[in-house]
Amino acid sequence: MQRLSVNGNRLWGTLMETARFGGTPGGGITRLPVTDADREVRDWLVAACKAIGCSVAVDEMGNMFARREGLDASLPPISFGSHLDTQHAGGKFDGTTGVLSGLEILRTLHEAGYRTRAPLELVNWTAEEGARFPPLLGAGVFAGAYERDWAYNSQDPEGIRFLDELERVGYRGSLGTPGHKLGAYFEIHIEQGPILEVEDKTIGVVVGARGQLWYDVVVAGLQGHAGTTPMAMRKDPMATFARIAQSAFDLAWTYSPEGLATIGHVEVIPNSRNVIPGAVSFTIDLRHSDKSLLHRMDSELVALVDKIAGGSETSVELKKFWTVEPMDFDSKCVAAVRNAAEKLGYNHMDIVTGPGHDALQVARVAPTAMIFIPCEHGVSHNEAENVKPEHVTAGANVLLNAVLECAGS
Protein backbone atom coordinates (compact mmCIF):
# COMPACT_ATOMS: atom_id res chain seq x y z
CA MET A 1 0.00 0.00 0.00
CA GLN A 2 1.30 3.45 -0.86
CA ARG A 3 2.35 5.64 2.08
CA LEU A 4 -0.01 8.57 2.41
CA SER A 5 0.36 11.75 4.45
CA VAL A 6 -1.92 14.74 4.81
CA ASN A 7 -0.99 18.20 3.59
CA GLY A 8 -0.40 19.93 6.91
CA ASN A 9 -0.11 23.41 5.43
CA ARG A 10 -3.44 23.04 3.65
CA LEU A 11 -5.11 21.72 6.80
CA TRP A 12 -3.84 24.67 8.82
CA GLY A 13 -5.02 26.98 6.08
CA THR A 14 -8.57 25.61 6.24
CA LEU A 15 -8.58 26.08 10.01
CA MET A 16 -7.67 29.72 9.53
CA GLU A 17 -10.03 30.16 6.59
CA THR A 18 -13.11 28.81 8.38
CA ALA A 19 -12.31 30.85 11.50
CA ARG A 20 -13.78 33.85 9.71
CA PHE A 21 -17.28 32.38 10.12
CA GLY A 22 -18.25 33.86 13.47
CA GLY A 23 -14.75 35.20 14.07
CA THR A 24 -14.31 37.50 17.08
CA PRO A 25 -12.06 40.57 17.52
CA GLY A 26 -10.11 38.59 20.14
CA GLY A 27 -9.07 35.96 17.62
CA GLY A 28 -11.60 33.31 18.56
CA ILE A 29 -14.98 32.22 17.23
CA THR A 30 -18.56 32.66 18.39
CA ARG A 31 -20.41 30.18 16.19
CA LEU A 32 -23.41 28.95 18.12
CA PRO A 33 -25.43 26.12 16.56
CA VAL A 34 -28.04 26.87 13.88
CA THR A 35 -27.10 30.54 13.68
CA ASP A 36 -26.18 32.40 10.53
CA ALA A 37 -22.47 31.80 11.20
CA ASP A 38 -23.13 28.08 11.59
CA ARG A 39 -25.05 28.05 8.29
CA GLU A 40 -22.17 29.82 6.54
CA VAL A 41 -19.54 27.33 7.67
CA ARG A 42 -21.86 24.42 6.80
CA ASP A 43 -22.34 25.81 3.30
CA TRP A 44 -18.57 26.11 3.00
CA LEU A 45 -18.11 22.48 4.07
CA VAL A 46 -20.71 21.22 1.59
CA ALA A 47 -18.93 22.99 -1.27
CA ALA A 48 -15.51 21.71 -0.16
CA CYS A 49 -16.72 18.10 0.03
CA LYS A 50 -18.55 18.17 -3.29
CA ALA A 51 -15.46 19.64 -4.95
CA ILE A 52 -13.65 16.34 -4.32
CA GLY A 53 -16.50 14.13 -5.48
CA CYS A 54 -18.20 13.38 -2.15
CA SER A 55 -21.95 13.29 -1.76
CA VAL A 56 -23.41 15.15 1.22
CA ALA A 57 -26.50 14.03 3.12
CA VAL A 58 -28.16 15.79 6.06
CA ASP A 59 -30.37 14.10 8.63
CA GLU A 60 -33.38 15.45 10.50
CA MET A 61 -31.14 16.92 13.20
CA GLY A 62 -28.88 18.73 10.78
CA ASN A 63 -26.04 16.22 11.19
CA MET A 64 -24.00 16.28 7.95
CA PHE A 65 -22.49 13.18 6.30
CA ALA A 66 -20.00 13.65 3.45
CA ARG A 67 -19.55 10.23 1.83
CA ARG A 68 -16.68 8.94 -0.29
CA GLU A 69 -17.62 5.66 -1.87
CA GLY A 70 -15.50 2.58 -1.33
CA LEU A 71 -14.97 -0.55 -3.40
CA ASP A 72 -17.68 -2.44 -1.50
CA ALA A 73 -20.88 -0.41 -1.12
CA SER A 74 -22.43 -3.11 1.06
CA LEU A 75 -20.06 -2.32 3.93
CA PRO A 76 -21.01 0.24 6.57
CA PRO A 77 -18.90 3.39 6.32
CA ILE A 78 -15.85 4.08 8.45
CA SER A 79 -16.66 7.53 9.78
CA PHE A 80 -14.78 10.39 11.42
CA GLY A 81 -15.54 13.95 12.37
CA SER A 82 -16.58 16.27 15.19
CA HIS A 83 -18.49 19.56 15.35
CA LEU A 84 -18.24 23.08 13.92
CA ASP A 85 -20.28 24.92 16.57
CA THR A 86 -18.41 26.76 19.33
CA GLN A 87 -18.88 28.35 22.71
CA HIS A 88 -19.45 32.08 23.15
CA ALA A 89 -16.04 33.62 22.43
CA GLY A 90 -14.61 30.14 21.95
CA GLY A 91 -11.44 29.06 20.22
CA LYS A 92 -10.56 28.15 16.64
CA PHE A 93 -9.70 24.50 17.28
CA ASP A 94 -12.26 22.87 19.59
CA GLY A 95 -14.33 20.55 17.37
CA THR A 96 -13.27 22.27 14.17
CA THR A 97 -9.94 20.42 14.18
CA GLY A 98 -11.80 17.12 13.98
CA VAL A 99 -14.04 18.11 11.09
CA LEU A 100 -11.32 19.77 9.03
CA SER A 101 -8.82 16.97 9.69
CA GLY A 102 -11.44 14.64 8.27
CA LEU A 103 -11.86 16.88 5.24
CA GLU A 104 -8.09 16.85 4.74
CA ILE A 105 -8.11 13.04 4.78
CA LEU A 106 -10.76 12.99 2.06
CA ARG A 107 -8.73 15.50 0.03
CA THR A 108 -5.56 13.43 0.47
CA LEU A 109 -7.24 10.24 -0.72
CA HIS A 110 -8.86 12.07 -3.62
CA GLU A 111 -5.55 13.49 -4.84
CA ALA A 112 -3.87 10.09 -4.53
CA GLY A 113 -6.71 8.33 -6.35
CA TYR A 114 -6.79 5.91 -3.43
CA ARG A 115 -9.96 3.93 -2.87
CA THR A 116 -10.71 2.16 0.40
CA ARG A 117 -12.70 -1.05 0.55
CA ALA A 118 -15.35 0.36 2.89
CA PRO A 119 -16.98 3.72 2.21
CA LEU A 120 -15.78 6.69 4.25
CA GLU A 121 -17.94 9.37 5.86
CA LEU A 122 -16.97 12.72 7.31
CA VAL A 123 -19.51 13.84 9.94
CA ASN A 124 -20.32 17.28 11.27
CA TRP A 125 -22.52 16.78 14.35
CA THR A 126 -25.06 19.45 15.25
CA ALA A 127 -25.03 21.40 18.54
CA GLU A 128 -22.27 19.66 20.46
CA GLU A 129 -21.25 22.44 22.79
CA GLY A 130 -24.37 23.03 24.86
CA ALA A 131 -23.78 26.77 24.59
CA ARG A 132 -27.26 27.42 23.19
CA PHE A 133 -29.15 24.12 23.29
CA PRO A 134 -28.56 20.91 25.31
CA PRO A 135 -25.09 19.41 24.76
CA LEU A 136 -24.32 16.63 22.29
CA LEU A 137 -27.74 17.18 20.76
CA GLY A 138 -27.25 15.96 17.19
CA ALA A 139 -25.11 12.95 18.08
CA GLY A 140 -27.42 12.15 20.99
CA VAL A 141 -30.48 11.85 18.75
CA PHE A 142 -28.44 9.90 16.18
CA ALA A 143 -27.44 7.40 18.86
CA GLY A 144 -30.94 7.15 20.35
CA ALA A 145 -29.97 8.80 23.64
CA TYR A 146 -32.46 11.64 23.06
CA GLU A 147 -35.89 11.68 21.47
CA ARG A 148 -35.96 13.71 18.30
CA ASP A 149 -39.08 15.67 19.29
CA TRP A 150 -37.56 16.53 22.66
CA ALA A 151 -34.55 17.93 20.84
CA TYR A 152 -36.77 19.79 18.38
CA ASN A 153 -38.63 21.49 21.24
CA SER A 154 -35.49 22.42 23.19
CA GLN A 155 -35.22 26.17 23.63
CA ASP A 156 -32.29 28.51 23.89
CA PRO A 157 -32.09 31.11 26.71
CA GLU A 158 -34.24 33.47 24.62
CA GLY A 159 -37.00 30.92 24.19
CA ILE A 160 -36.26 30.09 20.53
CA ARG A 161 -36.93 26.47 19.57
CA PHE A 162 -34.17 24.37 18.08
CA LEU A 163 -36.42 23.12 15.27
CA ASP A 164 -37.38 26.63 14.23
CA GLU A 165 -33.74 27.67 13.94
CA LEU A 166 -32.75 24.44 12.18
CA GLU A 167 -35.39 25.10 9.52
CA ARG A 168 -34.52 28.80 9.32
CA VAL A 169 -30.90 28.07 8.39
CA GLY A 170 -31.98 25.38 5.93
CA TYR A 171 -30.36 22.37 7.57
CA ARG A 172 -33.27 20.17 8.56
CA GLY A 173 -32.50 17.23 6.31
CA SER A 174 -34.54 14.22 5.25
CA LEU A 175 -32.23 11.42 6.44
CA GLY A 176 -33.95 9.70 9.35
CA THR A 177 -32.75 9.57 12.93
CA PRO A 178 -31.52 7.51 14.66
CA GLY A 179 -28.99 7.32 11.90
CA HIS A 180 -27.68 4.67 9.61
CA LYS A 181 -25.20 2.02 10.71
CA LEU A 182 -21.55 3.02 11.02
CA GLY A 183 -18.71 0.54 10.71
CA ALA A 184 -16.59 2.60 13.12
CA TYR A 185 -16.19 6.19 14.24
CA PHE A 186 -13.00 8.14 15.00
CA GLU A 187 -12.77 11.65 16.40
CA ILE A 188 -9.66 13.80 16.69
CA HIS A 189 -9.86 16.62 19.22
CA ILE A 190 -7.68 19.00 21.13
CA GLU A 191 -7.16 17.68 24.65
CA GLN A 192 -8.70 20.72 26.38
CA GLY A 193 -6.40 19.98 29.29
CA PRO A 194 -2.67 20.22 30.13
CA ILE A 195 -1.60 16.59 30.42
CA LEU A 196 -0.17 15.95 26.94
CA GLU A 197 1.75 19.22 27.00
CA VAL A 198 3.16 18.55 30.48
CA GLU A 199 4.13 14.99 29.51
CA ASP A 200 5.59 16.19 26.18
CA LYS A 201 3.41 13.83 24.16
CA THR A 202 2.20 14.53 20.64
CA ILE A 203 -0.69 12.07 20.61
CA GLY A 204 -3.16 11.02 23.26
CA VAL A 205 -4.66 7.59 22.62
CA VAL A 206 -8.05 8.02 24.25
CA VAL A 207 -9.05 4.73 25.85
CA GLY A 208 -12.26 5.87 27.50
CA ALA A 209 -14.19 8.64 29.17
CA ARG A 210 -14.88 9.85 32.68
CA GLY A 211 -18.43 9.51 33.86
CA GLN A 212 -20.39 12.67 34.56
CA LEU A 213 -23.13 13.63 36.99
CA TRP A 214 -24.81 17.02 36.60
CA TYR A 215 -27.04 18.56 39.24
CA ASP A 216 -29.20 21.66 39.52
CA VAL A 217 -29.46 23.02 43.06
CA VAL A 218 -31.82 25.68 44.38
CA VAL A 219 -31.45 27.06 47.90
CA ALA A 220 -34.37 29.20 49.09
CA GLY A 221 -34.22 31.51 52.11
CA LEU A 222 -35.63 34.85 53.18
CA GLN A 223 -34.67 38.04 51.40
CA GLY A 224 -33.79 40.85 53.77
CA HIS A 225 -31.84 44.03 54.39
CA ALA A 226 -28.10 43.57 54.76
CA GLY A 227 -27.78 46.35 57.32
CA THR A 228 -30.62 45.59 59.71
CA THR A 229 -31.03 41.80 59.93
CA PRO A 230 -28.89 40.21 62.70
CA MET A 231 -26.86 37.19 61.63
CA ALA A 232 -28.71 34.93 64.06
CA MET A 233 -32.06 35.89 62.53
CA ARG A 234 -31.13 35.39 58.89
CA LYS A 235 -32.30 32.65 56.55
CA ASP A 236 -29.45 33.24 54.14
CA PRO A 237 -29.28 30.87 51.14
CA MET A 238 -25.80 32.13 50.30
CA ALA A 239 -24.44 30.72 53.55
CA THR A 240 -25.99 27.34 52.69
CA PHE A 241 -24.62 27.57 49.16
CA ALA A 242 -21.11 28.16 50.53
CA ARG A 243 -21.28 25.04 52.73
CA ILE A 244 -22.59 22.88 49.88
CA ALA A 245 -19.96 24.19 47.48
CA GLN A 246 -17.12 23.50 49.89
CA SER A 247 -18.49 20.03 50.58
CA ALA A 248 -18.58 19.23 46.87
CA PHE A 249 -14.99 20.35 46.42
CA ASP A 250 -13.86 18.39 49.51
CA LEU A 251 -15.62 15.33 48.10
CA ALA A 252 -13.68 15.58 44.84
CA TRP A 253 -10.39 15.89 46.72
CA THR A 254 -11.28 12.74 48.63
CA TYR A 255 -11.54 10.88 45.32
CA SER A 256 -8.67 12.66 43.55
CA PRO A 257 -6.91 12.58 41.17
CA GLU A 258 -9.76 11.12 39.08
CA GLY A 259 -12.54 12.71 41.13
CA LEU A 260 -13.55 16.17 39.91
CA ALA A 261 -16.12 18.72 41.09
CA THR A 262 -17.08 21.96 39.36
CA ILE A 263 -19.58 24.70 40.15
CA GLY A 264 -19.69 26.67 36.94
CA HIS A 265 -23.00 28.51 37.08
CA VAL A 266 -24.47 30.50 39.99
CA GLU A 267 -27.49 32.80 40.03
CA VAL A 268 -28.25 34.97 43.07
CA ILE A 269 -31.69 36.50 43.52
CA PRO A 270 -32.03 39.49 43.58
CA ASN A 271 -28.26 39.85 43.16
CA SER A 272 -27.92 43.17 44.96
CA ARG A 273 -24.93 44.30 47.02
CA ASN A 274 -26.90 45.23 50.13
CA VAL A 275 -29.64 42.58 50.07
CA ILE A 276 -29.58 39.18 51.77
CA PRO A 277 -30.49 36.90 48.85
CA GLY A 278 -33.86 35.24 48.70
CA ALA A 279 -32.56 32.33 46.65
CA VAL A 280 -29.41 30.95 45.08
CA SER A 281 -29.49 28.51 42.18
CA PHE A 282 -26.34 26.78 40.95
CA THR A 283 -24.95 23.74 39.21
CA ILE A 284 -22.67 20.94 40.40
CA ASP A 285 -20.67 18.78 37.98
CA LEU A 286 -19.08 15.60 39.39
CA ARG A 287 -16.81 13.33 37.33
CA HIS A 288 -14.85 10.12 37.78
CA SER A 289 -13.49 7.43 35.45
CA ASP A 290 -14.53 4.55 37.77
CA LYS A 291 -18.24 3.73 37.69
CA SER A 292 -18.51 2.46 41.26
CA LEU A 293 -16.59 5.43 42.66
CA LEU A 294 -18.64 7.89 40.60
CA HIS A 295 -21.84 6.50 42.10
CA ARG A 296 -20.30 6.55 45.55
CA MET A 297 -19.59 10.25 45.03
CA ASP A 298 -23.22 10.67 44.01
CA SER A 299 -24.50 9.03 47.19
CA GLU A 300 -22.12 10.98 49.40
CA LEU A 301 -23.06 14.29 47.80
CA VAL A 302 -26.77 13.64 48.35
CA ALA A 303 -26.10 12.77 52.00
CA LEU A 304 -23.96 15.87 52.51
CA VAL A 305 -26.58 18.16 50.98
CA ASP A 306 -29.32 16.59 53.13
CA LYS A 307 -27.22 17.11 56.25
CA ILE A 308 -26.43 20.73 55.40
CA ALA A 309 -30.07 21.47 54.58
CA GLY A 310 -31.23 19.88 57.83
CA GLY A 311 -28.93 22.11 59.83
CA SER A 312 -29.92 25.37 58.17
CA GLU A 313 -32.95 27.66 58.08
CA THR A 314 -33.14 27.36 54.30
CA SER A 315 -34.71 24.82 51.97
CA VAL A 316 -32.60 22.95 49.44
CA GLU A 317 -33.70 21.23 46.22
CA LEU A 318 -31.07 18.98 44.63
CA LYS A 319 -32.02 17.64 41.21
CA LYS A 320 -29.80 15.32 39.16
CA PHE A 321 -30.66 15.68 35.48
CA TRP A 322 -27.66 14.29 33.57
CA THR A 323 -25.77 11.04 33.97
CA VAL A 324 -23.04 9.73 31.68
CA GLU A 325 -21.52 6.46 32.83
CA PRO A 326 -17.75 5.97 32.53
CA MET A 327 -16.98 4.41 29.17
CA ASP A 328 -14.29 2.28 27.56
CA PHE A 329 -13.81 2.86 23.84
CA ASP A 330 -13.68 -0.04 21.39
CA SER A 331 -10.47 -2.02 21.83
CA LYS A 332 -9.89 -2.55 18.10
CA CYS A 333 -10.40 1.12 17.27
CA VAL A 334 -8.13 2.16 20.14
CA ALA A 335 -5.51 -0.31 18.91
CA ALA A 336 -5.76 1.19 15.41
CA VAL A 337 -5.01 4.64 16.84
CA ARG A 338 -2.12 3.33 18.93
CA ASN A 339 -0.69 1.38 15.98
CA ALA A 340 -0.82 4.47 13.80
CA ALA A 341 0.98 6.62 16.37
CA GLU A 342 3.69 4.00 16.81
CA LYS A 343 4.12 3.43 13.07
CA LEU A 344 4.51 7.15 12.49
CA GLY A 345 6.95 7.54 15.38
CA TYR A 346 4.94 9.99 17.46
CA ASN A 347 5.34 10.19 21.22
CA HIS A 348 2.04 9.03 22.65
CA MET A 349 0.29 8.00 25.83
CA ASP A 350 -3.03 6.49 26.84
CA ILE A 351 -5.44 9.04 28.26
CA VAL A 352 -9.02 9.28 29.51
CA THR A 353 -11.24 12.12 28.35
CA GLY A 354 -12.90 14.27 30.95
CA PRO A 355 -15.04 16.50 28.69
CA GLY A 356 -18.07 15.18 26.88
CA HIS A 357 -17.69 14.64 23.13
CA ASP A 358 -19.90 13.50 20.28
CA ALA A 359 -17.86 10.29 20.30
CA LEU A 360 -19.35 9.35 23.67
CA GLN A 361 -22.82 9.32 22.12
CA VAL A 362 -21.74 7.57 18.93
CA ALA A 363 -20.02 4.86 21.01
CA ARG A 364 -23.50 3.67 21.98
CA VAL A 365 -24.12 2.47 18.43
CA ALA A 366 -20.71 2.02 16.74
CA PRO A 367 -17.14 0.99 17.59
CA THR A 368 -15.46 4.25 18.53
CA ALA A 369 -12.12 5.77 19.51
CA MET A 370 -10.65 9.25 19.91
CA ILE A 371 -7.31 10.93 19.26
CA PHE A 372 -6.11 13.88 21.35
CA ILE A 373 -3.50 16.45 20.42
CA PRO A 374 -2.01 18.96 22.90
CA CYS A 375 -3.38 22.45 23.30
CA GLU A 376 -1.32 25.28 24.74
CA HIS A 377 -1.46 25.39 28.55
CA GLY A 378 -4.61 23.25 28.37
CA VAL A 379 -6.70 26.34 27.58
CA SER A 380 -9.97 25.75 25.72
CA HIS A 381 -13.44 27.32 25.43
CA ASN A 382 -11.49 30.55 25.20
CA GLU A 383 -10.38 32.91 22.43
CA ALA A 384 -6.79 32.21 23.55
CA GLU A 385 -7.14 28.51 22.66
CA ASN A 386 -4.07 27.53 20.62
CA VAL A 387 -2.32 24.49 19.14
CA LYS A 388 0.87 23.88 17.19
CA PRO A 389 0.44 23.29 13.45
CA GLU A 390 2.74 20.27 13.60
CA HIS A 391 0.52 18.68 16.24
CA VAL A 392 -2.55 19.17 14.05
CA THR A 393 -0.69 17.50 11.18
CA ALA A 394 0.42 14.64 13.42
CA GLY A 395 -3.08 14.04 14.69
CA ALA A 396 -4.51 14.05 11.17
CA ASN A 397 -1.90 11.55 10.00
CA VAL A 398 -2.73 9.26 12.92
CA LEU A 399 -6.41 9.57 12.04
CA LEU A 400 -5.66 8.82 8.38
CA ASN A 401 -3.74 5.66 9.21
CA ALA A 402 -6.29 4.44 11.76
CA VAL A 403 -9.08 4.97 9.24
CA LEU A 404 -7.18 3.13 6.52
CA GLU A 405 -6.53 0.21 8.85
CA CYS A 406 -10.25 -0.14 9.54
CA ALA A 407 -11.51 0.68 6.04
CA GLY A 408 -9.15 -1.69 4.20
CA SER A 409 -7.58 -1.25 0.79
SSE sequence, one letter per element: HHEEEHEHHHEHEEEHEEEEHEEHEHEH
Overall geometry comes to globular
Tally of helical segments: 12
Helical content band? 25-40%
Q: What is the number of strand segments? A: 16
Question: Radius of gyration in whole Å, from Cα?
Answer: 23 Å
Question: In terms of structural class, how would the helical and strand content be classed?
Answer: alpha+beta
Question: What portion of the residues fall into strands of 2 or more residues?
Answer: 15-25%
* Cα end-to-end separation: 8 Å
Note the main sheet.
Answer: 9 strands, mixed
Q: What is the mean predicted local confidence, pLDDT?
A: 96
Low-confidence stretches: none
What does this structure look like?
The chain has 409 residues and is of the alpha+beta class. The protein is built from twelve helices and 16 strands. It has helices spanning 8-18, 36-50, 96-112, 137-142, 148-152, 162-168, 195-199, 237-254, 291-310, 331-344, 358-362, 389-407; strands at residues 55-58, 64-68, 78-83, 120-125, 184-190, 203-209, 211-220, 224-225, 260-262, 266-269, 275-276, 279-288, 315-324, 327-328, 348-353, 368-373. Strands 1, 2, 3, 4, 5, 6, 14, 15 and 16 form a nine-stranded mixed β-sheet that branches. The chain is globular, with a radius of gyration of 23 Å. The mean pLDDT is 96.
